[in-house]
Design goal:
The protein is of the alpha/beta class. The protein has 2 domains: 97 residues; 208 residues, no CATH class. Helix content is 17%, strand content 39%. The strands form 4 sheets. Strands 5, 7, 10, 13, 16, 19, 21, 23 and 25 form a 9-stranded parallel sheet that branches. Strands 6-24-22-20-17-14-11-8 form an 8-stranded parallel sheet, with no helix packed on it. A 5-stranded antiparallel sheet has the order 1-2-3-4-26.
Amino acid sequence: MVLALVLLLVSGLIAAPLLSHMGTGLVTGEVYETRTAELYAADAGVEDAVWKIQNKDGYLPCSPGSPAKNYTITDVNGRTVEVTIASVFAVNNITFIYQVLSTATGDGSGTQVEAYIEGVNKYGDYGDLLGQVITSQGEIELAPGTNVTPSEGDHSPVEYYSDDWPEPWELEDFYYDQVEDEEPYAFDIMDLAGVDMEEGPLYRDGELDIVNSSNTPATLTLTGTFYITGDTRIGSTQKDFTLDLNGQTLFVSSNTSGNKKALEIGDRCTVVGPGTIIAVGDIYFAPKGDVGSDEEPVFVLSVTGESLIQPQGDFYGSVGGSVVVDLQPNTSICYPEGDGWYDDLNFLIGVKKLVYSIDSWEVSQQ
């Protein structure tokens, strides 16, 4: 009986505070839920503004000082969201800063998120680089017996090219985006063994030799970008085969130069266009027969090194080299007819890419 009375007394003492605490908790929880819903709604407004900026969906202020863009999103978590986008900073068409104010209101309260969005040009547009039959940031060396068309006037060779030139990291980023989901190629030799093959996209982290060990001619057709990080040799040994670029790109990110080349294409390989062949370092390009055609030209570029060009037939397309472009004896290189021949090449042509990130994000509540 005594114990029961004690329990009743204790229960009576704690019941009132406990019930009060539970009531406060219910009220606080409701307020917290309301504020959380408002915060998520305001954040959704920021995300919507970022999407509109990225996609230039009619809500992109042109420059700092131009009128801000305002719009309303209805019924986000039962709230109305007012969004304002203003351009506050721009430098040389490379870096852009936008202010986004997103305010969610409802039930007599409101939550505002102020965010600053930074956009940076990830890589540039280098279409002008293909406007000449030969382009070099350094010298162009023409051995006796070479034939370059045109040799003068429009599309003729240009030495000490002073316009924009791609950086290795830009090309590495651009082409890696095209192969990043691929399982890395596990072998350092790709042997056609007399069998026609279709390959691509392909990512090889290391050196790679592409050969044909059989007397039976074969064709390797690219069906996507080939991205190779190490020195690459194609058709330098063994038997003849054809490399059909098929409108794709062979990109070698190795920066090897000197006696050893980043990319070597030898006389056991015939190159069929259209397509793009790029190495960061030196290129030795001496395939069998004609390279490409007037209708299906090829672009060859050494980004930081030299391009040593010595095909056994005529070359149709454009050649670039940072240090020097060296045409060996009896080489003939012809610029394709028509100004738009390179528009569809898988290269940094008309593809400036802005990458956006949220620099700061601050919340205020009414």
